[in-house]
Amino acid sequence: MLSYDLHLHSCLSPCGAAEMTPGDMAGMCALAGLDVVALTDHNTAGNCASFCRAAEGYGLVALSGMELCTQEEIHVVCLFETPEQAMALSEHVRGLLPPVPNRPALFGPQVLMDEADGVLGEETALLAGAAAIGIDEVAGLVAGMGGVAFPAHIDRPSFSLLGVLGLWDPALGYPLAELSRYCPPDFLDGRPDLAGVRFLTNSDAHDLDQIPDPAHYMETPIRSAGAVLEWLRHG
Questions:
Q1: Cβ atoms within 10 A of the Cβ of 7, count?
Q2: What are the extents of the domains in the chain?
Q3: What are 44-61's pLDDT values in tens digits?
Q4: Which residue from 80, 144, 202, 213 has the highest number of Cβ atoms inside 10 Å of its Cβ?
């Protein structure tokens, strides 16, 4: 059994703490006892390669991805086996973001780093906005690029599939959904639209002290990013 947290934000996310550097994040994940981790900054995969190198140095299985904000303002976690695959999506999404520069004093800095936490620069495009892509397009796009996508924190009232659309539609093509770690225990009561939906729970950590001890587990035949993606697709 492998413990996992597949929704983490680095200092590249405008809302991510400055302490969420690739190296420090990887070290904290290892210290917490996690086995499988993923970096999912807002609308970008710019720090994924650095995070994966740092995480692999601690013996962690690391996935690359992003938390994509659709045009409906629904957050979707998109995960890939390699940083290169994630960067292909990142470059596509960057062209779909509003042509608005980031204002670090207002939204926070968006810092690009290497695996040793050396500063490489800052992302100038505002990553906090919504990309011009619909929630009905993301699952197919990500699958076509070799990855897996699932709606984030669907129990939350904002930036969630249920908060925006009101119900789960299997025709959207998502293989599972994420519940926040603060999901009410009675959330599924009276929700026939969620019957049969597979769920996972991640931390959505934006600070080092939000990286959790192991609480959620997966079972895969081998310890690899590819096997984790297959578990997400099929269970």
A1: 26
A2: 2-234
A3: 999 999 999 999 999 999
A4: 80
Q: Which two tokens stand for residue 200?
A: 């996972």
Per-residue pLDDT at 74: 98
Per-residue DSSP letter, 78 = E
CA distance 135 to 124: 25
Tell me the per-residue pLDDT of 120-145, one tens digit each, with 9 for 90 and over: 999 999 999 999 999 999 999 999 99
Residue at token pair 């800052």: 122
Q: Is residue 72 within 8 Å of 135, Cβ to Cβ?
A: yes
Average pLDDT of the residues in 188-216: 96
Question: Is residue 67 within 8 Å of residue 90, measured between CB atoms?
Answer: no
Element of type H or E holding 53 = helix 48-57
Q: What residues does 150 pair with on adjacent strands? A: 77
Contacts of 95 (CB under 8 A, 6+ apart): none
Query: Does domain 2-234 match CATH 3.40.1380.10?
Result: no
